[in-house]
Amino acid sequence: MYRRPVTVTVTGAAGQISYALLFRIASGDLLGPDTPVRLNLLEVPAALAATDGVAMELEDCAFPLLRSVEITDDPMVAFDGCSVGLLVGARPRGKGMERSDLLEANGAIFGPQGAAINTVAADDVRLLVVGNPANTNALITRANAPDVPADRFTSMMRLDHNRAVARLAGHLGVGSGEVRRMAVWGNHSSTQYPDLTHAEVDGAGVVDRLDPTWVRKDFIPTVAGRGSAIIDARGASSAASAANAAVDQVREWYDGTEGDDWTSAGIVSDGAYGIPEGLVCSVPVRATGVGYDVVRDLDVDPFSRERIEATVAELVAERDAVRAAGLIR
Ligand code: NAD
Ligand code: LMR
After folding, report:
1. Ligand 1 atom closest to residue 42's alpha carbon, by position in its atom list
2. Which of 123, 155, 187 is the last residue of a domain?
3. Domain ranges, residue 76
């Protein structure tokens, strides 16, 4: 028996990630095989025709769970009744653009979207910001949606988490499904800290079996630099793996984390691990089905502490830049 249809809003619907993501949502991968979806697609006016093309392809899949597709360039229409918002569309960094210009350009996107969410989204709305700089875009969105509880805003770190799991599994010659308790801390950027300290395979810690030089000179920079390596190789940023990570993150958010494992998600900090309150920062979390619980009281060794502080410092600098630009208070 079907449940009630759920409205899923996807921004940047004509882009690369959405081209991989929308078909997974419509097929039931995001919310499960019993939940019909209504897709609301937001794009800029110049990309509405291309979005029409994507909608034609969605129709041609004859997905039983897909109830409707609405295409618009108006955030107030796109987020009307939205229970799941996937904020993918963002302004890419152009030639000669400074990071502060990028943050400002994105403020102009995520500010109005946050305001629309505040006004017209469903009471049970959950939001995943994918568009870069994802953590700070989530911060801007939240600042513009003051009536939406803080625990509904997340930024996508699942791609980094999956990359870390896959890299460790490959190194140890085990399946990815055997790796547990991976943690990625901080920003979705090259300063992120993929942390193997607590990782387990077959229920046993692995860090003592690993060469510290491999961890520091190979594992960490490879995971943290993977996005750039894909851009160099493909000539475009990751799309199918990013869409897959979005599906993984949202699905687990609703279904809960398996057993006593955990995952990594960018969430609004409550001050845990000394991370300033209000920053959207990745920490190890358990999904409970209702929300996320931070995995507290992990031992943080001096190297990890230094790495966490460095990536948090970058997030603080991004927050201060958007504050200076008047995008948040
Ligand atoms: P893309 O350029 O192919 O698509 C982006 C789309 O967003 C475009 O169609 C554009 O028209 C649209 N857009 C721009 N402004 C918009 C607005 N105000 N409202 C609605 N739509 C708008 O890019 P992509 O490859 O799909 O990537 C999207 C974003 O995701 C980028 O910022 C990318 O850097 C980021 N990304 C994040 C992760 C992550 O792990 N967090 C991983 C990969 C990519
Ligand atoms: C990724 O991690 O693949 C992307 O965020 C890279 C990018 O800058 O788009």
Report:
1. 20
2. 155
3. 6-155
Question: What ipTM does this complex have?
Answer: 0.99
What does each C-alpha distance from 87 to 117, 127, 185 come to in angstroms? 11, 7, 21
> Domains in the chain: how many in total?
2
**198 labelled catalytic:** no
**Maximal CA-CA distance, the chain:** 55
Q: What is the pLDDT of residues 58-91, one digit of tens each?
A: 999 999 999 999 999 999 999 999 999 999 999 8
Question: Whole-model pTM above 0.90?
Answer: yes
Whether the CB of 15 sits within 6 Å of ligand 1: yes
Q: ∠ at Cα 200 (214, 163), nearest 5°? A: 60
CB distance 15 to ligand 2 below 6 Å: no
Single-letter code of the amino acid located at 152? R
Same domain, 44 and 87: yes
Q: What one-character DSSP code corresponds to residue 186?
A: B
